[in-house]
Write a structure and sequence with these properties.
Elements: H1 2-32, H2 39-43, E1 48-56, E2 77-79, E3 88-93, E4 99-106, H3 111-114, E5 118-123, H4 124-129, E6 137-146
């Protein structure tokens, strides 16, 4: 009878280890997987983010944006990595006060700037209204006023203005 008892203990001990390894693997996959396509909008359901803003200026004038429009640094526009194109947002400078309403027309900031905490790229005109052109960056709050529908004006081709920087 002793060999059967040892066999069952071994079986249960091995089963527990296998179960623990399986659960660990499932948790790792869940944590490392990107959100589903529909989860993107719910992630921003409140429509408010806080981080750094930067701006791109005249060097990008005339380049096609992700929306298909041509970038104009004198317009009140911005680039955001995930808000739908056409979304209207209020950007508030948390350091100097003041706010501006802009429309999301492009994708950006570039990945290297996002790693530094930049959440939105503003046009030169928007940066001027926020008194951030001298510093180049400012701590801001971005609030969605009206969600866009991601419509594009023309077919996309080539680099967009914000992704080129």
């Amino acid at each position: 009878m002793l060999p059967v008892k040892i066999g069952l203990e071994h079986f249960f001990r091995r089963g527990a280890v296998v179960l623990a390894a399986f659960l660990y693997a499932v948790c790792a996959v869940c944590l490392l997987s990107p959100p589903a396509a529909g989860a993107q909008k719910s992630q921003h359901a409140k429509g408010t983010q806080t981080g750094l803003a930067s701006f791109y200026g005249r060097a990008f004038d005339g380049r096609k944006t992700a929306s298909g429009e041509h970038f104009d640094s004198d317009e009140l526009t911005a680039a955001h990595p995930s808000y739908p194109l056409g979304t209207r947002v209020r950007v508030t400078n948390l350091e100097k006060g003041g706010s501006v309403q802009v429309r999301i027309t492009d994708r950006g900031p570039a990945q290297r700037y996002r790693r530094q905490g930049v959440i939105i790229d503003l046009s030169r005109a928007a940066a001027t209204r926020l008194h951030m052109r001298k510093d180049g960056r400012a701590r801001v709050r971005v609030q969605v006023l009206e969600w866009g529908n991601d419509e594009k004006k023309e077919a996309e081709s080539g680099k967009t203005a914000a992704s080129a920087g």
